[in-house]
Amino acid sequence: MAMTILVTGGTGYIGGEVIDQLLARGHSVHTTVRDKGKSEPRLRARWSDAGERLAVFEADLMSDAGWAEANAGCDAVAHVASPFPLAVPSDKDELVVPAREGTLRALEFADKAGIKRFVQTSSAAAIAYGQPEKDHFTHLDWTNLTAGVPPYIESKTVAERAARDWVATKAPTMVFCSINPVAVFGPVYDDDMSTSVELVKKIIDGSIPLIPNMGICVTDVRDVAQAHVRALEAPAEKVRGERFPTSEKFLWLREMADVVRARVPEHAGKVPSRPMPNWLVRLLALFMDEMKQIKGELGNVRDVSGKHTEQVLGYSFIPAEQTIEDTVRSLFAKGIVKP
Ligand code: NAP
After folding, report:
1. Residues ≥6 apart with Cβ < 8 Å to 46
2. How many percent of the chain have pLDDT more than 90?
3. Calpha distance 40→62 (Å, rounded)
4. With 130 labelled, which of 277, 297, 330, 337 sits at a CA distance of 20 to 30 A?
């Protein structure tokens, strides 16, 4: 049955794909943006056929303004918006406070509007950190904040914990679940890209001359969006309280570079083939923010399983190799990376 769903953060990479799939399935969408004047024309251009099935509201995670209007008339919420910057802020509260308060604000206004289903875009960041003894993780694992983790990791863990505690105490009949993606890649709509896609861009545009000894789990933005859509549509008993990691495969960056060379050779001219020694990463980390983040990940395996999600939500993820290929092709097709 067609529903009206509030998707927060409609300007974002994942939010945009969730809206895309919801509209394609016949649902109506309310979405929040921070600057309606700037963002609504872009959203209307992307979904030019949606007409009244798409309504855009101005609402910031840090303010109550606009949230009651955005929730009015909705059946369910996909809460996707959260800060996801490239650089690590010097003050962790720049991320932790909006992630936590924004999630609680979204929950409170949804509850006041009588909404009974709430899907939170959490992250594998809330699963796979602060446990140096482990390298394989499932939906049952939680990041250990007492170990001291980077601000973004903390922000996602704190936000998911806060949401679960809030639902348990304030709205126990609400059907709540989280989607916990690993690094999200796949086709991009325009050059307003997510931080995750920047990594593939840097591998193919020549900004990384050598490959650091680092790996990540890969998931496709279309699979992440599909998990949201299925979690919104599934029977309540199937999704209540669940965590749904989306993750296809763990790949070392050198393997990602190999995938580009094998599957998109015409765009692989600037893809590095030689390893970056760990000592060089540590040296560059003294003055380069991105290297600072890589430094802590050298040689680490964080393999998050998405099997539970495939089984419960009933679909199979796009192979990581296909996702990498589609990311590269779309970055060139949109002119974001020049040949
Ligand atoms: P994105 O493209 O940067 O989108 C982030 C969205 O959040 C944007 O719509 C942004 O709005 C909105 N937002 C940020 N701060 C806000 C605030 N104070 N008030 C209102 N809206 C705010 O990133 P994304 O990759 O789509 O990420 C979306 C969600 O997925 C986030 O919760 C992120 O933590 C999670 N996630 C992402 C990945 C990944 O690899 N991409 C992996 C796991 C989880 P503006 O356009 O106004 O900035």
Report:
1. 16, 20, 189
2. 88
3. 20
4. 277
Query: With contact defined as beta carbons under 8 Å apart, do 129 and 113 qualify?
Result: no
| Rounded to 5°, angle at Cα 193 from 276 and 327 | 65
Q: Which residue of 31, 57, 82 sits with most ligand 1 atoms within 8 Å of its CB, as the best mutation to test the pocket?
A: 82
Gap from CA of 10 to ligand 1 centroid (Å): 9
Identify any residues that bridge with 251 across adjacent strands, giving them in sequence order: 216
Task: Judge contact between 185 and 327, C-beta under 8 A.
Answer: yes
Distances (CA, A) of 83 to 21, 98, 202: 23, 7, 21
The CATH code of the domain at 4-182+219-246 is 3.40.50.720
Sequence spans of domains, the chain: 4-182+219-246
pLDDT tens per residue, range 57-115: 999 999 999 999 999 999 999 999 998 877 778 889 999 999 999 999 999 999 999 99
Rounded CA gap, 192 and 205, in Å?
17
| Beta-bridge mates of residue 178 | 120, 243
Q: How confident is the model at residue 193 (pLDDT cuts 50, 70, 90)?
A: confident
Helix or strand or coil: residue 192?
A: coil
Distance CA 44, CA 120 (A): 25
79: CA distance to ligand 1 center in Å? 10
Q: Taking the model in full, what pTM does it have? A: 0.97
> From the alpha carbon of 62, which atom of ligand 1 is closest?
18
Q: DSSP states of 83-94 as a string?
A: ---SSPPSSTHH
**Alpha helices, DSSP H only, in 208-319?**
221-233, 236-239, 253-263, 278-284, 289-295, 307-313
Tokens of 192: 């307003």
DSSP letters, 63-111, are: --TTHHHHHTT-SEEEE------SSPPSSTHHHHHHHHHHHHHHHHHHH
